[in-house]
Amino acid sequence: MLKINDINVYYGNIHALKGVSLEIHPGEIVTLIGANGAGKSTLLKTISGLLKPKTGEILFEGEHVAGKVPQLIVKRGISHVPEGRRVFANMSVEENLELGAFLRKDKKAISEDFEKVYGLFPRLFERRRQLSGTLSGGEQQMLAMGRALMARPRLLLLDEPSMGLAPLLVKTIFRIIEEINQSGTTILLVEQNANMALSIASRAYVIETGKIVATGTAAELGQSDQIRQAYLGGH
Amino acid sequence: MEQLIQQLVNGISLGSIYALIALGYTMVYGIVKLINFAHGDVFMVGAFIGFYSITILDLGIFPALLISMAACALFGVLIERIAYKPLRNATRIAALITAIGVSLFIEYGTIYIRGAQPEAYPNGIVPLKSIEILGVKISGQSLLILAVSIFLMILLQFIVYKTKIGKAMRAVSHDQDAAKLMGINVNNTISATFAIGSALAGAAGVVFGIYYTKIEPLMGIIPGLKAFVAAVLGGIGIIPGAMAGGLLLGVIEALVSAAGFSLWRDGVAFVVLILILIFRPAGLFGKNVREKV
Ligand SMILES: Nc1ncnc2c1ncn2[C@@H]1O[C@H](COP(=O)(O)OP(=O)(O)O)[C@@H](O)[C@H]1O
Ligand SMILES: [Mg+2]
Predict the structure, then answer these.
(1) pTM, whole model, 2 decimals?
(2) Domain A1-77+154-235 falls in which CATH fold?
């Protein structure tokens, strides 16, 4: 579904992604784990078109999308839930969701998707008229995910959805991620919470200072001593 | 007492013109964080386009108003695309200096093209009669200004809060990258903002010409600066703030005149600016958050 071949991404002369390759098959949850500053967010931003790779290619469903503007990439079916949620705090929950469907014109299907998102996140329905800046961190995360789903993506990119949330909420969010996946959306999940991420993913990649250093099934990586030492608190 | 109310009416008329111009400042600032110092000159160009539409094309006020708004919208988009867009990632000071350059270019370009001599809007073109309420006479010109500005402000509210482009504008002004991830075309949204703000300035130019009669190529400087003060007074970047700031500034000026200090009228705006910057830098409608440095 998504195939990344040997991309290099720079910020000025900082070489942030060094020959990264990665592949995602339809229906999977793939997780990308790595320490702070390893390049996880950079990779997601490159997929969604916020950054352009200097070299390398990105194929989505067989089409070259590297360097394309975010607009085209959303339209093709990739939605990105950015790190830190980035909801439009000055707008209501409902308006945020409407913006998620910005490029769509199928009014009827859009209102179906409103129902779906409100079904997935009943809290958002209760607060639909509230300014999203007044929501709690967990609710803002739900809104950011709901907003991305309003574009009807086939591939959903999630950047640290559990960041800063209480353990109970983290569980809820991960359960919902599984639900979204079961209803047919492929997922690339970036996490620092590697334990949780490996528990729902089918495969995983490990990134260190801009390079992929390990890959395998979630079960394999969860067993690997090296990975456990570095990312799972060494238990 | 009647004198006072009369001055209030004058203040509100003048204030609506400030408000119309201030809206463009505030919308542009909200979306690209640039004080567009050429905005007062778009207002001037609007006044001239209205003037020529009425005198040369022999059009009525409302067609002239529409032509001026449309032409200014286009002009505003061109200014942004040619002068500001290439500097979008440059330092703020570079953009600000460019804006001052664009302003001078428009002023002296206009003088180069048509000369520096003033023109006078023809009399008797306002289709509204003056009315008298409780002994206060409200001129047809005042009524026209009020009607046009109230209509445009309601229309603007509708565009900004109810339409897709308005929602895109608010999204881009809040977070450009997040807006891009929604599939919003940031460049087009910025262009639309310049178009709308400039159209309002064009309308302000025409009603200004009708109210004060005299127009000339440097007429945009003082109203432009005062509208900027009005935008800061209301809270730069905040649309209702620009409306309230404009009206308030017009009323303050009229009251200062009424109190017998008409020579101080132009100065008072800047006293207001200094006071607001000292006591409430985020403006009347702004949240007072300390800027992170
Ligand atoms: N806008 C930027 N400008 C310069 N360097 C950046 C920028 N964003 C990220 N970086 C650098 O790129 C590297 C990868 O960052 P990032 O992708 O955000 O890491 P992660 O998401 O894994 O924490 C880091 O060294 C970071 O300092
Ligand atoms: Mg990150």
Answers:
(1) 0.92
(2) Rossmann fold (3.40.50)
